[in-house]
TrEMBL record:
Family of this protein: Belongs to the aldehyde dehydrogenase family.
Annotated ranges, domain Aldehyde dehydrogenase: 62-487
Keywords: NAD, Oxidoreductase
GO BP annotation list: L-proline catabolic process to L-glutamate
Keyword Endoplasmic reticulum: no
Protein name: Aldehyde dehydrogenase domain-containing protein
Length: 544
């Protein structure tokens, strides 16, 4: 019942229209509206251009009702040989590079154009938004936002834009006939691993970057949501992508790990937890780009303005998608002027309007209810700590117990206590759910706030909320987060496709979304020095 309510929060397209769209487009193999225990979906692996089942399937529970509704291949390590063979067959020079098969740059410009056109159709947009909602429940607005950002990315790389990604440069040489040129070269066989929280956007943007630059990726998406990536691949094939350009491995992460150990991809992009990131960094001997944990902070300066807007942005940043964004606001440093102005009460009021019925709060896929409430209790042992709002389980639902369900929660911890070594680790632990830590600072305490930022280990997104240019510049000058928003409208979440998104301060840090991110993650620099002569006379040759 809840599932129906949540998913029905946007106007439903008439069923006949959806069916017509499905018939016309001829690529989708599931109907997100109809997925249920009596009508389960079945996923398939893709290897060397062919869709294949695995020996066993895993029955995934509907995150809102617990009913099994999707059978996904549970590929085991003794079934990975075809994936290893497929990746090993790829040369280091890739499927294309600036000197080989350049027509494929144009092919991918064309594929991107067609995918964008498909995604512009209301029924296709709705298809992906609802499929996302079924496996990673979030409000319709959030799911639709994910689809639209993805579509805009495809729009950005239509036409000649893929070819321009591989743009190089030349420098004059030392003598006639010599020039040097820098080229963007692919790695060839590569791996791409993505988590559950953005089932369409993260796989789509990183996958295309890999393909655009001439690599052949082995894609693995968290098994609980990989049905979305499979449907995306079917759409890509429909729009002209050669079927053998990508392999898709459904199954446990450990099977992907085993495949990588055997196939030895020449580069890997991993998005997910810090635990798995560090493991892969060791296993790949450092040949990995990382988008890992996000413990994201927001510092509010002394200048209070636009209280309603700023409170709304805080609520969005901390609790949209039930806090399951790597960019979610994990810690808020509010200047006492904001606290006096009533910011925290407004945030509490906004959080109280979130409800399961429209999925503005919903299941948490990687933290249980007990773990989140246990973490709150741990924080409450810190002197002066208190619950500002939330801190209780959601009630009246059928979310299976493997998933978490808590109210949007904020725990206040005094700044001086948060900084103590015995508390700092707990205070700065990323809870991947609707959970944030709030603290307050006063005039003269900015060095303590900046000390907290200096001691944190992850530097993904950050926000400096102020229109005081000197204050903003001081905070920016003394922090490193890779995606930092500054100004009274600063946020931590909602990265669109028009700017770089990724961590900083770690040489393994990856990026997503922009031409620079694609070039950095999915290609390497190759310098070619041409030296065709004329050759100087023998009399001019001196030994050195
Ligand atoms: N920095 C970013 O851009 C970004 C974006 C989204 C999520 N995240 C982070 O992801 C985390 C949430 O996701 P999670 O906890 O489900 O991540 P996770 O690390 O458990 O899983 C991520 C992916 O890794 C795979 N995996 C697991 N073990 C593996 C192994 N041994 N070898 C190869 N692959 C393996 C999983 O199947 C999944 O596809 C949060 O910490 C969040 O901040 C980061």
């Amino acid at each position: 019942m809840l599932a129906r309510q949540g998913l029905g929060s946007a106007p439903l397209l008439a069923q006949p229209l959806l069916q017509l769209a499905r018939r016309l487009s001829q690529w989708a193999t599931v109907d997100p509206q109809k997925l249920s225990a009596s009508n389960p979906a079945a996923c398939l692996n893709l290897v060397a251009g062919s869709w294949q089942p695995s020996r066993e399937s895993r029955q995934l529970p509907d995150p809102l009702t617990g009913e099994p509704f999707i059978a996904v291949p549970h590929t085991q390590p003794d079934e990975i040989a075809p994936f290893v063979k497929s990746l090993k067959a790829v040369p280091k020079t890739g499927l294309h590079n600036p000197l080989k098969n350049p027509g494929r740059y144009l092919l991918y410009g064309d594929v991107s154009f067609k995918v964008a056109a498909e995604m512009r159709k209301p029924e296709v947009e709705d298809f992906f938004a609802r499929l996302i909602q079924r496996v990673a429940p979030k409000s319709y607005a959030q799911a639709l936002g994910e689809v639209r950002v993805t579509r805009k990315f495809y729009e950005n790389f239509g036409g000649d834009q893929v070819r321009f990604l591989a743009r190089g440069f030349t420098n004059p040489g030392d003598h006639p006939g010599q020039t040097s040129s820098g080229n963007r070269w692919p790695y060839g066989p590569v791996a791409l691993i993505t988590p559950f929280n953005f089932p369409l956007e993260i796989p789509a943007l990183q996958l295309m970057g890999a393909l655009y630059m001439g690599n052949k990726p082995l894609l693995h998406v968290d098994q609980r949501v990989s049905i979305v990536a499979e449907q995306l691949l079917r759409l890509l094939q429909h729009c002209g992508m050669p079927a053998a350009d990508v392999d898709l491995l459904h199954g446990p992460g450990t099977t992907m790990g085993a495949t990588m150990r055997e196939a030895q991809p020449r580069s890997t992009l991993f998005t997910g937890s810090q635990r798995v990131a560090e493991r892969l960094a060791l296993e790949t001997h450092g040949k990995v780009f990382l988008e890992d944990a996000g413990f994201d902070w927001k510092i509010m300066g002394p200048d209070v303005a636009h209280l309603d807007y700023v409170a709304w942005q805080c609520d969005q940043d901390a609790y949209a998608c039930s806090g399951q964004k790597c960019s979610a606001q994990s810690m808020l440093f509010a200047h006492s002027n904001w606290v006096k102005a009533g910011l925290l009460e407004r945030m509490a009021a906004l959080a109280s309007t979130r409800k399961l019925a429209d999925l503005t709060v919903g299941p948490v896929l990687s933290w249980s209810t007990e773990a989140m409430l246990g973490h709150a209790q741990r924080l409450l042992k810190i002197p002066g700590a208190k619950i500002l709002f939330g801190g209780k389980p959601l009630t009246g639902h059928s979310i299976p117990s493997v998933y978490g369900a808590v109210q949007p929660t904020a725990v206040f911890v005094p700044l001086a206590e948060a900084l103590k070594p015995e508390h700092f680790e707990a205070v700065t632990t990323e809870v991947f759910g609707p959970f944030q830590v709030v603290t307050e600072w006063s005039d003269g305490q900015l060095p303590l706030v900046l000390e907290a930022c200096e001691r944190m280990t992850n530097h993904l997104t950050a926000a400096v909320v102020s229109n005081d240019i000197n204050f903003v510049q001081h905070v920016l000058a003394n922090t490193v987060n890779g995606t930092t928003y500054a100004g009274i409208r600063a946020r931590t979440t909602g990265a669109p496709q028009n700017h770089w998104f990724g961590p900083a301060g770690d040489p393994r840090g990856a990026g997503i979304g922009t031409p620079e991110a694609i070039r950095m993650v999915w290609s390497c620099h190759r310098e070619v020095i041409t030296d065709f002569g004329p050759v100087p006379p023998s009399s001019a040759l001196a030994q050195s």
